[in-house]
TrEMBL record, chain A:
<dbReference type="GO" id="GO:0005886">
    <property type="term" value="C:plasma membrane"/>
</dbReference>
<feature type="transmembrane region" description="Helical">
    <location>
        <begin position="179"/>
        <end position="199"/>
    </location>
</feature>
<feature type="transmembrane region" description="Helical">
    <location>
        <begin position="237"/>
        <end position="260"/>
    </location>
</feature>
<comment type="similarity">
    <text>Belongs to the binding-protein-dependent transport system permease family. CysTW subfamily.</text>
</comment>
<dbReference type="InterPro" id="IPR051789">
    <property type="entry name" value="Bact_Polyamine_Transport"/>
</dbReference>
<feature type="transmembrane region" description="Helical">
    <location>
        <begin position="97"/>
        <end position="123"/>
    </location>
</feature>
<keyword id="KW-0472">Membrane</keyword>
<keyword id="KW-0813">Transport</keyword>
<dbReference type="Pfam" id="PF00528">
    <property type="entry name" value="BPD_transp_1"/>
</dbReference>
UniProtKB/TrEMBL annotation, chain B:
<protein>
    <recommendedName>
        <fullName>Spermidine/putrescine import ATP-binding protein PotA</fullName>
        <ecNumber>7.6.2.11</ecNumber>
    </recommendedName>
</protein>
<keyword id="KW-0813">Transport</keyword>
<keyword id="KW-1278">Translocase</keyword>
<dbReference type="Pfam" id="PF00005">
    <property type="entry name" value="ABC_tran"/>
</dbReference>
<comment type="subunit">
    <text>The complex is composed of two ATP-binding proteins (PotA), two transmembrane proteins (PotB and PotC) and a solute-binding protein (PotD).</text>
</comment>
<feature type="domain" description="ABC transporter">
    <location>
        <begin position="24"/>
        <end position="254"/>
    </location>
</feature>
<dbReference type="InterPro" id="IPR013611">
    <property type="entry name" value="Transp-assoc_OB_typ2"/>
</dbReference>
<dbReference type="InterPro" id="IPR017871">
    <property type="entry name" value="ABC_transporter-like_CS"/>
</dbReference>
<comment type="similarity">
    <text>Belongs to the ABC transporter superfamily. Spermidine/putrescine importer (TC 3.A.1.11.1) family.</text>
</comment>
C-alpha cells in the first residue's frame, strides 16, 4: 500500500511537470490584467483583441496554409517513398535508402534549416527559382522534414498489408496503377490520414526551420510568438498559444484515433488470417 | 489408406492419348532465389479438364511453381505454355488464368458482391451482366444470402467459398488453387473436397491444386505430381502413385509403408526374388525389375496388404512369410494398426479391418503372429 502511494505520487508529479505550465498558460490567457503574472479577474478580452491583430492573424493564416500544403505534398511524396521501400523488392541500395529516409527524424533542426537555406540561395543564383524566400520556401522546407515521418508511417502500414491482396487484384485483371488506387490506397487510407495530420501538426509547430528559410513579410505564427516573447510575454500571446494548442491537440487526437482504429483493423485482419481467412 | 478417389474412372484419359495436346506445358522450369533453388527443372503436361494436384511437404516449391503459372514470379530458366502460348513476358492481368490464394486475399474494404464483381469490372462487363453472373456464382457456392456482408463478417468456410467464387466468376480456362482447403477444419474440409470436385466437373475448368495433404490429393485429383525439394518425384494417377511408387520418398510420403532392404538373388522376366535380412524371409515379387542380380534394393509393402494370423499360412513356400511378436495395437474403430516386432528386430506395421468386435479379437498384445503377403504386394524401389 505504501509502495503504491509512492508510485502514485511519482505519477502525479510527472504529470504535473508536464501539464502545469500548459494549464498556467491557458489560465492566464483569461486574465483581465495586462501584467501576465498578476491575476486581475476573468476576461476574454485578449481573445477579442487577438482577432483585431492583423499581424498575428496574417501569420496564423500563413502557418495554416503552409501546414496544409506541406502536409499534402509530404503525404504524396511520403506514400511514394514508403511504397518503394515496402514493395519494390530488394532493389540496389534499399537498406541505404531505408536508413536515409529516417535520418531527417533525428537531424538537428538547425542543420536542416541551414542546409535548406543554402540550397535555396544556390538555386536562386543558378536558375532564378525560388524567387526570394517566403511561403514557397517554407512549404518546401517543411515538406522535406515531414515527408520522412509520413514515409515511415506508410511503410510500416504497407509491410503489414498482405501483398497477396494486390496480387489477387492483378490476377483478376487490374493493371498495377488501378490496383494501387482501388485496393492499396483505400486500405492504407487511415495511415495516410494520420500521416497528413502528423505532418500538419509538425509544420504548424516548427519555428527553427521556418526561421532559416522565411523572408521578409512571410512570418509564421510560431515565429511571431517567438519574437514577441523577446519583448515580454503579453496576455494576447497566451490567448494565441492557447488557440494553437487546441488546434494541434485536436490534430494529434484525431491522428491517434485513426491510428487506433487502423490498429484494430489490422488485428482483425490478422485474426482472420489465423482463423483461415 | 481407406481413401478412394471420388471420381469414377472414365474414357481414355487425356494423358494416355497421344492425339491430345496439353493445355498447360511446363518445360524444364527452374526458379532460384539467390543461391536457393526453389523449383528445379520441372516439366509437366496438364490437360484440359484435369484436376491436377501438386503434392509436397512445406517448402517443396509448390507455391512457387503455381505463382510462375499465374505470372507473379518469372522462371529463372525454362518455358511455360498455356494453350500453346508462351507465357514469357505476359503479366498476370493478361493471362487466361485465375488464382485462389492460400490466404484467400479477399479485399477487406469491399462486400462479398464487390469482391466477386471485381474481376468482371476490370474486363468492362456491363452492369446488368455483372449482377447476373455474380448472383449465379454466389448461388453456386451457396452464398446467395451473404452478398452484402464484408469478409470479416464471414466464417472461414464462407470466406473460402467467396474466394472460390471470385476466382471462378471470370470463367477462366485454368484455375490455380493454393491450399484451398488448408485453413478449414477436418469435417468442413472433407465436405468441401466433394463440392470442389463437383464444381470443377460442372464448369469443366482445369484445376491445378497445391496441397500438402496426401489424402486430399488422392481423393480429389485426376493426377498428382509429388514434389520434393523443388523436384517432381513422380507424376501419376492416385492409384499409380499409391500402388506403384517409383522411389522411397514417394512410397513413404503417400500413406504408410514398410520398407525391407534386400539383395536380388533371382532376376527373371516374370518375377524377382530378393533375399532380405530385414524381413527374415525371401521376398517374391511377380513383376520384373530393371536391376541386375546382386543389386541391393528396397521393397515397399503397404500395411493393409499384409495378413496376420496365429497359425502359419497353409501351403506356403516360405516366401513373403515371416513372424514376430505383437508389440502395439491401435484400435481406430474401422481398422486396427498392429506393430509387430520381427525376429530380426525390425518393426512392421500392419493394418487390418475389424471384422469382429474388439473384445473378441483373436490377436492381442505379445502374441506370436505370422505375417504374409501376396506376390503382387511388394514394390521394388531402387532409388
Ligand atoms: N520470394 C522468395 N524469396 C526467397 N525465397 C523464397 C521466396 N519464395 C519462396 N522462397 C523459398 O522457396 C522455397 C519453396 O517455397 P514455396 O514454393 O512457398 O513452398 P511450398 O508452397 O511448397 O511450401 C521455400 O524454401 C521458400 O523459403
Ligand atoms: Mg505454399
Amino acid at each position: 500500500m505504501k509502495q503504491m502511494g509512492k508510485l502514485a505520487w511519482a505519477l502525479w508529479f510527472g504529470y504535473a511537470f508536464l501539464y502545469v505550465p500548459i494549464a498556467l498558460l491557458i489560465f492566464y490567457s483569461f486574465n483581465e490584467s495586462r501584467l501576465v503574472t498578476v491575476w486581475g479577474g476573468f476576461s476574454t478580452k485578449w481573445y477579442a483583441e487577438l482577432l483585431q491583430n492583423d499581424q498575428l492573424l496574417g501569420a496564423a493564416w500563413l502557418s495554416l496554409k503552409v501546414a496544409a500544403m506541406s502536409a499534402t505534398a509530404s503525404v504524396v511524396l511520403g506514400t511514394v517513398a514508403g511504397l518503394a521501400l515496402a514493395r519494390f523488392g530488394r532493389f540496389r541500395g534499399r537498406t541505404l535508402f531505408g536508413g536515409m529516409i529516417t535520418a531527417p527524424l533525428v537531424m538537428p533542426e538547425v542543420i536542416t534549416g541551414l542546409s535548406l537555406l543554402l540550397l535555396f540561395v544556390a538555386l536562386e543564383q543558378a536558375i532564378g527559382w525560388p524567387d526570394g524566400r517566403g511561403m514557397t520556401t517554407i512549404t518546401i522546407a517543411h515538406t522535406t522534414f515531414t515527408m520522412a515521418y509520413v514515409a515511415v508511417i506508410i511503410q510500416s502500414r504497407l509491410v503489414s498489408l498482405d501483398e497477396s491482396l494486390e496480387e489477387a487484384a492483378m490476377d483478376l485483371g487490374a493493371r498495377p496503377a488501378k490496383v494501387f488506387f482501388v485496393i492499396t490506397l483505400p486500405i492504407i487510407a487511415p495511415a495516410i490520414v494520420s500521416g497528413w495530420l502528423l505532418a500538419f501538426t509538425l509544420s504548424l509547430d516548427d519555428v527553427v526551420v521556418a526561421s532559416f528559410v522565411s523572408g521578409p513579410g512571410s512570418t509564421t505564427l510560431p515565429m511571431v510568438i517567438f519574437s514577441s516573447v523577446k519583448f515580454g510575454i503579453s496576455p494576447q500571446i497566451n490567448a494565441l498559444a492557447t488557440l494553437m494548442m487546441v488546434v494541434v491537440a485536436t490534430g494529434i487526437f484525431i491522428a491517434s484515433l485513426v491510428m487506433a482504429r487502423q490498429e484494430r483493423q489490422r488485428k482483425r485482419d490478422e485474426q482472420m488470417a489465423v482463423q483461415g481467412g | 489408406m481407406a481413401v478412394q478417389p471420388i471420381r469414377k474412372p472414365t474414357r481414355l484419359e487425356p494423358w494416355q492419348d497421344p492425339g491430345q495436346k496439353p493445355y498447360v506445358r511446363i518445360e524444364k522450369v527452374t526458379k532460384t532465389f539467390g543461391d536457393f533453388v526453389a523449383v528445379d527443372e520441372v516439366s509437366l503436361s496438364i490437360y484440359r479438364g484435369e484436376f491436377f494436384a501438386l503434392l509436397g511437404g512445406s517448402g517443396s516449391g509448390k507455391t512457387t511453381l503455381l505463382r510462375m503459372l499465374a505470372g507473379f514470379e518469372t522462371p529463372t530458366e525454362g518455358k511455360i505454355f498455356i494453350d500453346g502460348v508462351d507465357m514469357a513476358g505476359i503479366p498476370p492481368y493478361e493471362r487466361p488464368v485465375n488464382m485462389m490464394f492460400q490466404s484467400y486475399a479477399l479485399f477487406p474494404h469491399m462486400s462479398v458482391e464487390q469482391n466477386v464483381a471485381f474481376g468482371l469490372k476490370q474486363d468492362g462487363v456491363g452492369k446488368a451482366e455483372i449482377k447476373e453472373r455474380v448472383g449465379a456464382i454466389l448461388d453456386l457456392v451457396q452464398l446467395g444470402q451473404f452478398g452484402k456482408r464484408k469478409p470479416h463478417q464471414l466464417s472461414g468456410g464462407q470466406r473460402q467459398r467467396v474466394a472460390l467464387a471470385r476466382s471462378l466468376v471470370k470463367r477462366p480456362k485454368l484455375l490455380l488453387l493454393d491450399e484451398p482447403l488448408g485453413a478449414l477444419d477436418k469435417r468442413l474440409r472433407e465436405r468441401t473436397q466433394f463440392e470442389l470436385v463437383n464444381i470443377q466437373e460442372k464448369l469443366g475448368v482445369t484445376f491445378i491444386v497445391v496441397t500438402h495433404d496426401q489424402e486430399e490429393a488422392m481423393t480429389m485429383s485426376s493426377r498428382i505430381a509429388v514434389m520434393n525439394h523443388g523436384v517432381i518425384a513422380q507424376t501419376g494417377t492416385p492409384t499409380e502413385i499409391y500402388e506403384y511408387p517409383q522411389s522411397r520418398f514417394v512410397a513413404e510420403f503417400i500413406g504408410s509403408v514398410n520398407m525391407f532392404e534386400g539383395r536380388v538373388v533371382e532376376d527373371q522376366a516374370d518375377h524377382v526374388l530378393i533375399r532380405s535380412e530385414d524381413a527374415g524371409c525371401d521376398l517374391y515379387i511377380n513383376h520384373a525389375v530393371a536391376v541386375p542380380a546382386g543389386a541391393t534394393v528396397g521393397v515397399a509393402v503397404r500395411p493393409e496388404k499384409i495378413a496376420l494370423s496365429k497359425e502359419p499360412p497353409a501351403n506356403s513356400d516360405g516366401r513373403n512369410v515371416t513372424s514376430g511378436i505383437v508389440r502395439e495395437i491401435a484400435y481406430l474403430g474401422d481398422v486396427s494398426i498392429y506393430l509387430v516386432e520381427l525376429k530380426t528386430g525390425k518393426t512392421v506395421r500392419v493394418t487390418a479391418p475389424n471384422v469382429v468386435r474388439r473384445t473378441e479379437m483373436p490377436i492381442t498384445w505379445d502374441d506370436e503372429v505370422h505375417l504374409s503377403w501376396r506376390p503382387f504386394a511388394g514394390v521394388v524401389l531402387t532409388q
